[in-house]
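Hi W.,

Here's what went into the run:
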Amino acid sequence: MEPHEPDLTAVPVTSVLAALADDVRLQIVRALAEGGESACGSFDFGVSKATRSHHLKVLREAGLTRTRAAGTSRLVRLRRDELDKLYPGLLDAVLTQRPPA
Amino acid sequence: MEPHEPDLTAVPVTSVLAALADDVRLQIVRALAEGGESACGSFDFGVSKATRSHHLKVLREAGLTRTRAAGTSRLVRLRRDELDKLYPGLLDAVLTQRPPA
DNA sequence: ACCCTTGTTCGACAATCATCGAACAACACC
DNA sequence: GGTGTTGTTCGATGATTGTCGAACAAGGGT
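Here's what came out:
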């Protein structure tokens, strides 16, 4: 089963935005931006592993992440370079945690 | 009927992204960015006026646009300054039409 | 007053989506 | 080989969403 990691230029902008327009997925992206490559299991945001797997699939198919197998785990990382090149400012704008004020 | 134009800082990022993650709404935002303040009716993107009204409502309630009455029309404009201040780079990243290559 | 134009609101409907438990697959380790 | 860990996949389900036509409201003309 190929991991379905599309060319970012082939992904419609709306798909990239839709992938980011979910709270759980945004938390995953933030964790990846801070912690670098991480195992799927490290994202514990109060959803079942089935749901988490679903969200990681959405992120991957939107071109936001890459996944590689490592033993029994799977390591996920942000495609930050490509994203910053194609959508400069997008990740920065979205990643920075905003103060409640 | 108040037009429900929220303080941008009170709108969750996911709502802003979700508002932009639709093809029709993105076309509206692009048209507004290019043409400035425009009447609702000027956005003819192949949907009924009911649907168009719905999309404009989503944009307004996500804090992306402001609307004011002008005779029988309603003029809509992008809240670009506020958006650029709160999410620098977001609009630019999303607005630029990308070549199919 | 009448009509036309411009938008909004109201169901309704189909499609998509987030979520879950259970079943399955792959790998490691003993 | 068996057991445990880590993820994925498969329905199912409830919620959200995009879409429409029809009805309604507000203004501007004539």
